[in-house]
Amino acid sequence: MTSGNRDSPVAIRSSAASRRIRKPINCEACRRSKLRCDRRKPCNTCIRRALGDACTYVRVTGEITPQGHNQIRHPDTTQAHPRGTPRTVSSVLLPSPQVVPTTNLDSQREDGQNSRFHWDDVLLRPTNEAIDTITTQPETSFPFPPTTRSPIEGLLSILPSASCCDYLVTRFFTHVSPLFNVVHGPTFQQQYTAFLRSPEQTNLAWLGLLFVVCSLTLLTLDEGDPILHEISRHQQQAASVLDLSNQFRRAATTCLAHDSFLTHHNLNTLEALLLLIYAICHLEGVERGWTLLGIALNIGIALKCHITSPGLGQTERERRHRLWSGILMLHTYQAILYRDIDLSGLLKIPATVPAEIDTGNLTDDASRTTGHGSQMTLMKFKIRLFELSTKVCSHLSGTSLNDEPALNSLDAAIQQEQTDWDSAFLIDGMPSILDTTSYAHWCILQTYAHQLYLLLHKPFHHQRSGTFRTQSRQKCIESSVALLDLYRQFYELPRLKSYRWLLNGMTSFNALQASVALSSCLLGVPTLPEYEDYIKSIDATMDRMKELQVSSPVCVKAYPILRKLHQQLTSEHTMRPEPRGIVDDEFWEWIDGVDWSNFDSIDLGFPNDFPENV
């Protein structure tokens, strides 16, 4: 971009027009295509970046320019590239038209005597058809279907009424946003007010964000909620919570596709994308969001969300810092699932941690910190969990798994986090009756802690392993039981009713792993006094997953596995008083061969089959 009145687009075009006081001369591309020349079109680079209105490029090929104007530089050009280095079309210095006369170009091509590359040919203004071809390439909207027409009218027709949107947005910032605080509420409210005043002028990226907000909030509602009836009536068809949520989520991806989000993105784009990934992880499974998370990471780097850019107000800086923290938080899920991959490299990228400030106290003039118990407390703990999970996974991917000091150090680090969570979210060790969200936050964090305990101690919890540790087996039993009890609370407790939707994805996956870990411990030791209670806990988890199959793809895949575990445990318990080594071997051969990141690869044939109606 050029600056100053002398270099403004109007000044440049006026200067060019003053030199063309006679009949306008078409550029070469327009002459060959027999089209009317329009030198005012922006260059291809600005078109692809959606910056056509700001392009200052002026085309003068075919005219003899006055002395002093014999070279024209593209606005993106800052300096010439060293000899021998690759150069892009947007950064080359155009040769003077007098150096390579236009009249000689065609003859040189026809004779084939001069194969020298002519940059002025490359930079010729494309015809309208060529522009359409460039701007509708499928790659610009991957992985979503490309399109050439603005979908704004059709998308607006999908949105519920204004009153329903008001309700869903308010509920989002009450129940969902605190769990994954990447959207700045006051900024969203300003954008929402502007949208209500002029819906047709809305930004597609922000409209996609609104659809994701509505999609996630719907999951917190019961099937009998009156708002669902109102939204279904607007849609002119009866629909379940999951159907409506999926419909709004598809609309969000359509918005991003029409906005060409891979090449045209802003903070709203990243907010919408991160919430989409968050929803996918908690509805379909963590592995489904892995690829999109890589895209979000690169967009976050492109938007410089990890650094403090000069010239930005406090609000804009904090918005970027929250988005970067959201990227790290989502990587916590991936670090635990793909635990053989060391993600600690993300921690080496210099980044600013969001301030522990309530959203309402965040202004450009001053920020009043609230310290303990602010809205950002959960986010702070989740960022620390990402740091801790990378240390655990780095240890697991190393060669010294049985390093006793390292194992004890990681155990102590997890225990310290749990102590801090108790201080932040519990009152004298009990849930607060005045705060409806703090206990939910505590429960969510506890699922991370016990998942990390299982990862650390699983290699040593069974006598079959070469480095068996009695304390590791006990730790696996305790963490498995704790995970299953947290699963029960999310399913049953009225105070956690608004968070039950978390059971559809990652939380059910954690419960499945806890059931498998507990089963392996029970099969490997003599009958324990609590054996019957442990069996009942696994059976209850299986029953809950059976009910959740209607809304959870994860439960659809996990339920058959739990049925197999149930059959294995009950048959072993009734047939023998002591463990039987052969069965243990068969069971462990199955456990060792399971790829928990790919449900479809799990073989349910261990150790022998049983009727489907069990």
TrEMBL record:
PROSITE patterns found in the cross-reference section: ZN2_CY6_FUNGAL_2
Entry keyword Protein transport: no
Subcellular location: Nucleus
Annotated CDD domains: fungal_TF_MHR (cd12148), GAL4 (cd00067)
Residues in Zn(2)-C6 fungal-type domain copies: 26-57
Renumbered residue ranges of the record's region Disordered: 66-112
SUPFAM superfamilies on file: Zn2/Cys6 DNA-binding domain
Low complexity bias: start-end ranges: 88-103
InterPro entries attached to this UniProt entry: Sec_Metabolite_Reg (IPR050613), XnlR_reg_dom (IPR007219), Zn2-C6_fun-type_DNA-bd_sf (IPR036864), Zn2Cys6_DnaBD (IPR001138)
GO biological process, one term: DNA-templated transcription
Pfam families: Fungal_trans (PF04082), Zn_clus (PF00172)
GO molecular function terms listed in the Swiss-Prot or TrEMBL record: DNA binding; DNA-binding transcription factor activity, RNA polymerase II-specific; zinc ion binding
Main location: nucleus
GO cellular component, one term: nucleus
Gene3D superfamilies: Zn(2)-C6 fungal-type DNA-binding domain (4.10.240.10)
Keywords annotated in UniProt: Metal-binding, Nucleus
Name of the protein described by the UniProt record: Zn(2)-C6 fungal-type domain-containing protein
